Amino acid sequence: MVGSYAAGGGRGAAVAAVAEGKLDELRRRMGKADGDLLRIVGVGGGAWGSAFCALLQDAYGRHRDKAQVRVWRRPGRAVDRATAEHLFEVINSREDVLRRLIRRCAYLKYVEARLGDRTLYADEILRDGFCLNMVDTPLCPLKVVTNLQEAVWDADIVINGLPSTETREVFGEIGRYWKERIRPPVIISLAKGIEASIDPVPRIITPTQMISNATGVPLENILYLGGPNIASEIYNKEYANARICGADKWRKPLAKFLRQPHFIVWDNSDLITHEVMGGLKNIYAIGAGMVAALTNESATSKSVYFSLCTSEMIYITHLLAEDPEKLAGPLLADTYVTLLKGRNAWYGQKLAKGELTLEMGDSIKGKGTIQGVSAVHAFYELLSQSSLSVTHPEVKKLVAPVELCPILKTLYKILIKRELATDSILQAIRDESMYDPRERIEMSQRQCLYRPSLLGLPKVDITQA
Amino acid sequence: MVGSVHVNGSVNGGNGTEERLDELRRLLGKSDGDLLKIVGIGAGAWGSVFAALLQDAYGRFREKVQIRIWRRAGRSVDRTTAEHLFEVINSREDVLRRLIRRCAYLKYVEARLGDRTLYADEILRDGFCLNMIDTPLCPLKVVTNLQEAVWDADIVVNGLPSTETREVFEEISKYWKERISVPVIISLAKGIEASLDPIPRIITPTQMISSATGVPTENILYLGGPNIASEIYNKEYANARICGSNKWRKPLAKFLRQPHFIVWDNSDLVTHEVMGGLKNVYAIGAGMVAALTNESATSKSVYFAHCTSEMIFITHLLTEQPEKLAGPLLADTYVTLLKGRNAWYGQMLAKGELSPDMGDSIKGKGMIQGISAVGAFFELLSQPSLSVQHPEENKQVAPAELCPILKRLYRILIKRELSTRDILQALRDETMNDPRERIEMAQSHAFYRPSLLGKP
Q1: What is the number of domains present in chain B?
Q2: Which end of chain A is more exposed for a tag (fewer CB within 10 A), N or C?
Q3: Any chain A CB within 8 A of the CB of B230?
Q4: Between residues 322 and 351 of chain B, which touch chain A (CB distance below 8 Å)?
Q5: What are the tens digits of pLDDT across the range A114-159?
Q6: Of A300, A304, A329, the CB nearest to B436
Q7: What is the CATH number of domain A277-453?
């Protein structure tokens, strides 16, 4: 290929050629002329957001005349002494990282920080590839921008790596910078949390909806990327699957662009189910962590919990989507890994062991935001609204949907109301009067539970869909 | 309640338990003085635990019920196991006291010293299952003569591996030829067989039992569920599901249920029994993936997505309206992939600590049912007479071609032409179909093949 920047051996050259082909294809689709860079910006420097941008930098960064990958994060976040000491150990234990820092004349500041003679900042270390939430997994060096306007004003693709709790605020600001844009950008959201609004009618607000409302970018250009999200494993080339959900126009070309040998991206049109399920499973991941800790990793108790929580998830999904994807296959895999590992499950374990308390809040140093906590609150409040009543299968009267979700109710009382201790989660799964989870599943499939208003959709939109 | 015997426990518990026993006795037509006879056949981990649970729950009502367990005689306990057993006994004060009280302790000292050979049936009487030494059970009535064990049994619990079920129940049928009353049989076996002649079909343990004994299918039930026997006996909370005809499944579910062992009932015998065998196939692969990727959660989830989609596809071939793989069946799959001897076996193979040449019966673990199930399912689904439409290539293919993990496991475990590492290649093949496509295909097309389960 004439003009290829391929470096390294034949294998590397071949990989680079494939990558360049994919990059060229996406550039054409986005109408980029020669000399006009494809600008990709990650917003937010959390673990997954940083790892995602690093994957793109590793894959396409060498084509400096065609693509530019940047990350925005807020300035001013100081690295504490203990973390600086640990970071120093990580650097010194990785020869490749140590060599790189020495070569870039970027090493000595870590020595100074280790000795307590200097304060490092999160944006500073991220330029060297260290994410504050994932210090043990060094990434490639990244272009880090701390000015939001400078970062996004001319971006072609924006990756939302923010927690959902910050998405509205940050994209509200971004919306101001984009007022005079000619061409709307494409936005890929990684955020998994959701909000509930109960005024004027009860409904869920997803991160993609927040982004669309805040920026005016049409939903056609906003996609959700979901999947098992152990960022350090994905960056370390553990084989992983993800799923990009959204409108036809962009999801297939983006799936192709994002796909790498160890990171398979499939595409799906069902944005709602995947984005909401992404938030929903974090709720039950906290409970799974509690059960694991309280029963000393009992596989038997985990399976009982899994059976009950998946039936609640199925039930809730049937309220939210008219024809939801079956909870089998890929969505199931996401649920499986989220319950097995990940920070929400980790958080549940720590609470149950007494190593963390609720008063410490849902943003944990070294871990980031525990999205499941706010999601418990959102789903509980939403499903408690009497205007959404469903028929109780045994008592034959109308009840709020949350009455049929005992695990969700218990998690709400533990995490939000704080009137129950963590071991109440075991009582919830051991209640002999609890329904066979199969009954809940059958009910969700038999009754017409669907409530379009829950996602802010009037009936007519469904007809058009 | 006049005449009630309370050995211990609360009156309420006693009343509830005895009431359930009385109810079942009435259903089985047992008059006063006529014992309800329950026999477990086979003393693997789960079979032993199951009998022990019943003994713990109902054994005190000695004038109403008798619980026994049959196992073959002659299986000796090797020196290493005897030494370990001695450690277990001495580390458990309750067990030690019990053995001393029953004058049954000194034989373990002798065995520890190598001065005596113990036998599996002998130690099982004291509550030690050879496949589960670390979890002492309550003492059990052990019978080694099969005729004596089953000739007048009212309820028989099949705790045999599926590979022994046919043989043993054929022998049992000789003893039952002149029976007046028909017994109720609960099968715990999870393996399956494939028969290719005259037409390809699966044979399940309950079918083997029915064919061998002539007992009508109405009286044969399957109990499935996550089956970590030691955890269940240690009162970890567990769910199980009893599947079979209307007549017996609800009363038995009620009888078997305990505070820490919930039993639900289901009419879909076929799906649950076959899925019980099918998930052991994929559990071996899950163990391999876990070992090869150092417990990577990300790789496990990829494996899980693919193997569940294959399971769904296969289930749609076997059953007209299979239960959705969600909820309870999912929980079974989850725990089987997470823990259990099939997953353990896959891990050991991948680490090189075991090899396929050692066979599928492992000392201290029992039968690895997944191995024979791999062979059975693969051979069955390879038959050209079962061809289905390939989703992309517009041609007819055998169903096995659409199950790359099953194919790979067959070549690793049965043909032995691939190493365990190749299971990762199956996951990492970029050309592999999106698992969602397989699920959609299974649900949208009429794949059902009644002949696979011997139905016209």
Answers
A1: 2
A2: C
A3: no
A4: 323-328, 330-332, 334-335, 338-340
A5: 888 899 999 999 999 999 999 999 999 999 999 999 999 999 999 9
A6: A329
A7: 1.10.1040.10
